[in-house]
Automatic annotation (TrEMBL):
Domain Flagellar motor switch protein FliN-like C-terminal: 256-316
Family to which the UniProt record says this protein belongs: Belongs to the FliM family.
Pfam families (alphabetical): FliM, FliMN_C
The protein's role, per its UniProt record: FliM is one of three proteins (FliG, FliN, FliM) that forms the rotor-mounted switch complex (C ring), located at the base of the basal body. This complex interacts with the CheY and CheZ chemotaxis proteins, in addition to contacting components of the motor that determine the direction of flagellar rotation.
Gene source species: Edaphobacter paludis
CDD domains: FliM (cd17908)
Membrane topology, from the record: Peripheral membrane protein
Protein name stated in the entry: Flagellar motor switch protein FliM
Gene Ontology molecular function: cytoskeletal motor activity
Keyword match DNA repair: no
GO BP terms in the entry: bacterial-type flagellum-dependent swarming motility; positive chemotaxis
Stretches of the chain forming a coiled coil according to its record: none
Keywords: Bacterial flagellum, Cell membrane, Cell projection, Chemotaxis, Cilium, Flagellar rotation, Flagellum, Membrane
């Protein structure tokens, strides 16, 4: 006949079973306490994902700076300022009274994001495209013509977003400019969003470009982004040879120029055609050889037949030359990208 369990034995069995559920044995025999799942952290973006997002947005900022600057034909700087996760209601509180906010459809996620361009930088952009000098106007609502012009600028910005995010299959589709009331209904106040801010600088104005995306729907895309970043990229020998061939065909501006010197302002002010200006330099002094606007060394001007040249003074380190050429070629590549766009 089996043993009958007393109430104390039954309580001891339940206590032992609860202890086994509460701890998990590892391979080393150590016990790891379970972690409580916090449902409020659903959709939370990890630090690794934020680093991957920063990499993509840095690329977007550089491309937008070149493309938009070439289109506007004016100096323009775009820099990633911050990327943070915050509730949607906090993003709404940061919106200015007069601002340009448009909705973006995120495909294939089927979600909606927002792109904000402050009027502090919007009005100078419109002023440049209308033939002005790029000065900021007093804060006011845009006219229909100004809104149409700014819409084309935002569409160009969305194209650069697509180029930056295309590696993970995320596509941004511009929809329309939204009113303040419509923006407030885009998401629930407590929904977590990813807010990325970019500083846009022009010669006479500066402002902020904000991108607001729902954080929950980005998780699958962000995991793919991290896996793409970890995957080693290999180029074939043919690709290396093609790159070397293309780089060898690029032209780099080279010039000889005088070193810095001091001249009297009265001598410069009285210059007329035919005047001979005496420079405070000895005849034997060497000029500066600059390649791609970078100082490469000292040289003397010479002539070979119909060609002008530079005779280097002393030897130059090959590593130094390679560094200078790489920098100059990078500048040429940026200019080529601007011209293509």
């Amino acid at each position: 006949m089996g043993k009958q369990l007393e109430q104390g034995d039954i309580d001891a069995l339940f206590a032992a079973a609860g202890a086994n559920v509460a701890t998990h044995a590892t391979a080393d025999g150590d016990s790891i306490p379970p972690e409580r799942y916090n449902f409020s952290r659903a959709g939370q973006i990890s630090n690794e994902q934020m680093r991957a997002i920063s990499t993509v947005n840095d690329l977007f900022a550089r491309n937008l700076m070149h493309t938009l600057g070439a289109w506007l034909r004016t100096p323009l700087r775009v820099k990633l300022v911050a990327g943070e996760q915050l509730p949607f209601k906090e993003f709404l509180e940061r919106l200015s009274i007069h601002t340009f906010v448009c909705s973006l459809r995120l495909e294939p996620l089927g979600a909606v994001g927002l792109l904000e361009l402050e009027l502090a930088i919007s009005s100078p952009i419109v002023d440049v495209l209308l033939g002005g000098a790029g000065k900021a106007w007093p804060v006011r609502e845009l006219t229909d013509i100004e809104e149409a012009i700014l819409t084309s600028v935002v569409q160009l910005t969305v194209q650069e977003l697509n180029l930056a995010w295309q590696s993970v299959g995320l596509e941004f589709v511009f929809e329309k400019r939204e009113t303040e009331a419509a923006v407030a209904r885009m998401m629930t106040p407590g929904e977590k969003t990813l807010c990325v801010s970019f500083e846009v600088r022009m010669p006479e104005a500066q402002g902020v470009l904000n991108l607001c995306l729902p954080a929950v729907v980005l998780n699958a895309i962000l995991r793919r982004l991290i896996s793409e970043g970890d995957r080693p990229r290999r180029r074939s020998k043919e690709a290396h040879m093609r790159i070397r061939e293309l780089l060898g065909q690029m032209k780099i501006g080279t010039l000889l120029q005088f070193p810095q010197m001091r001249l009297r302002a009265s001598e410069v002010a009285t210059l007329v055609p035919g005047t001979v200006l005496r420079l405070p330099l000895p005849r034997t002094s060497a000029a500066e050889l600059r390649v791609g606007n970078l100082h490469l060394g000292r040289a003397h001007p010479v002539r070979t037949g119909e060609h002008r040249g530079a005779q280097l003074e002393g030897e130059i380190d090959r590593d130094e030359i390679s560094g200078h050429l790489a920098h100059a070629l990078g500048q040429q590549a940026d200019e080529a990208t601007m011209s293509v766009n």
